[in-house]
Amino acid sequence: MDYRSEQTPPEQNPDEAKRGPVDTIQQLGQINVPNMESNIFCMSVIGQVEGHMILPPQNKTTKYEHLIPQLVAAEQNPRIEGVLIILNTVGGDVEAGLAIAEMIASLTKPTVTLVMGGGHSIGVPIAVSADYSIIAESATMTIHPIRMTGLVISVPQTFEYLDKMQERVNRFIVNHSRISEEKLKELLFKTGEVPRDIGATVGGPDAVRFGLINQVGGIGEAIAVLNRQIEERRSKQPAAEVPLQ
Questions:
Q1: Has 144 been annotated as catalytic?
Q2: CA distances from 133 to 21, 88, 129 (A)
Q3: Which of 200, 203, 204, 93 is nearest to 142 (CA)?
Q4: What pLDDT band is residue 31 in, cutting at 50, 70 and 90?
């Protein structure tokens, strides 16, 4: 007689139990804090924003096709009441960065961005896309015109295409921050500050002074602002109707 069906299943290997969270860290850079449920969803934009072209494996990248489903899930999940986006990025694919920024800006739930280290290039639109933005005092933001690598067709249409793409980025930044279009263009075409001799590097306090970012601060300030926005949103929501008995 076979008694194997009556035997208790073997204990799970501790390594197998850890495999889920470890895989999550390796793939998405995220892990749920044990024994804690939060109403705030935290998303990070780290390294280079990878778009239509796959970057070399030695590059630290944030794949935009990973972020978009997370934002959709956060918008649909009733337990999530606010979204915190932490940035330390050198920039990357322009259209991918704009797609992430547009997704964040279109969320109906309160959002806060926190720039730690750097929010450069296409990271600038992402940094200003939230309802409120914070930057660390030591963090920087590099503002420069759109650049292309690889084969460039030297015709007037190429210049016009780049000019229209730059206009899209500029319009988004101006519409989602307090910086004026004149000041933004002044920073874009400033010479003598960046290696390619066009553009500007803005520190945390200057980013606030120019109107790009709302305030200087860190994770504590970001959580406090987000909780305040969540409470304001709760107070504006109509009370649940009590069914008639």
A1: yes
A2: 30, 14, 8
A3: 200
A4: low
Q: Supply 233's token pair.
A: 């949103």
Say what the pTM is. 0.79
> pLDDT by residue (tens digit) across 183-224?
999 999 998 887 767 889 999 999 999 999 999 999 999 999
- State the Cα–Cα distance between residues 78 and 109, nearest whole angstrom: 10
Catalytic residue chosen out of the listed positions 44, 120, 129, 144: 144
Q: Check: CB of residue 130 under 8 Å from CB of residue 71.
A: no
Distance CA 245, CA 241 (A): 12
Burial of 242 (0-12, 13-18, 19+ CB in 10 A): exposed
Judge whether 121 counts as a catalytic residue: yes
The active-site residue, picked from 121, 129, 133, 177, is: 121
